[in-house]
Design brief:
5 strands, 209 residues, 5 helices
C-alpha cells in the first residue's frame, strides 16, 4: 500500500498501489469503458497467439494510437471524478445548511485536512495543523459556500479529551450518589411506653356496691 500514490494506466503490467496487488487492469466493462474493450482485444490476442501475440495484437507495445487512447481515457476519467466529487460535496454542504448542523466529528489527516466521520466530506480546519495524524476531533462549522463549495471550520476539542472529561464527570456524579445514599435520615427506635403500661397498665378499682 502506498498512500497518496496515484494509479495511472500504462502499456506494461505494474502493481496497483491502492489495492496492493502485483498487477491490475480494467477489462470487465467494455460497453461503458472503451479502455476495457481495448484491453479485451489485447487479452484475446494473447490467448489466441501466445508468444506471437505482440505481432497479432490490435495494438503494439509502443503504438502511438494506444498511448493516445490511454491519455484520452485518463483525461476523461479525471474529469468524471472531479464532477462526481463536486456534486457529492454540493449536496453534503446543502444538507449541513438545511439541518442546521454546526458540529461534526472528524479524523485528522495531514496539513490541516480532516475527514468527517459520518459524511463524505474532507475539509481544512483551523487548529488541525498542530494535531497528530489519526486523532479524532470535534469541529465547529462556521460557514459554507455552495458556489465555491468551500467549508470553514475550526477544531473545538479532541474527542479523547471529551471522553476523558465525560468519564470524570460520571465518576464524580457516582461519588455524589454514593454519599447521598449513605447519608440518609437518622431513625431512632424509642419505647415510649411507661413501666405501668409494660406491666399491663393500671387496674380499675372496684366500685362498692
Amino acid at each position: 500500500m502506498a498512500p497518496g500514490v496515484k494509479v495511472r494506466m500504462g502499456v506494461k503490467p505494474a502493481p496497483h498501489a491502492g489495492m496492493g496487488v502485483a498487477q491490475y487492469t480494467w477489462a470487465t466493462s467494455p460497453l461503458r469503458r472503451y479502455v476495457d474493450l481495448v484491453n479485451q482485444w489485447q487479452i484475446i490476442a494473447c490467448a489466441r497467439h501466445g508468444r506471437t501475440a505482440a505481432l497479432a495484437a490490435p495494438f503494439k507495445p509502443k503504438d502511438v494510437q494506444l498511448f493516445s487512447i490511454i491519455s484520452a481515457f485518463d483525461a476523461a476519467y479525471t474529469a468524471y471524478n472531479a464532477f462526481q466529487s463536486g456534486i457529492e460535496r454540493y449536496w453534503t454542504l446543502l444538507w449541513l445548511a438545511q439541518t442546521g448542523t454546526t458540529e461534526l466529528d472528524a479524523v485528522v489527516m495531514k496539513d490541516g485536512l480532516v475527514r468527517v466521520d459520518t459524511l463524505p466530506l474532507v475539509l481544512r480546519a483551523l487548529g488541525a495543523e498542530s494535531i497528530e495524524r489519526g486523532t479524532h476531533v470535534r469541529l465547529r462549522i462556521t460557514g459554507t459556500d455552495l458556489l465555491t463549495l468551500d467549508v470553514h471550520a475550526n477544531v473545538i476539542a479532541r474527542i479523547d479529551a471529551i471522553a476523558a472529561a465525560d468519564a470524570g464527570a460520571e465518576a464524580e456524579a457516582g461519588d455524589d450518589t454514593d454519599a447521598e445514599e449513605g447519608a440518609g435520615p437518622l431513625t431512632l427506635a424509642i419505647d415510649m411506653q411507661s413501666d405501668e403500661a409494660a406491666d399491663g397498665g393500671p387496674q380499675p378499682s372496684e366500685t362498692p356496691a
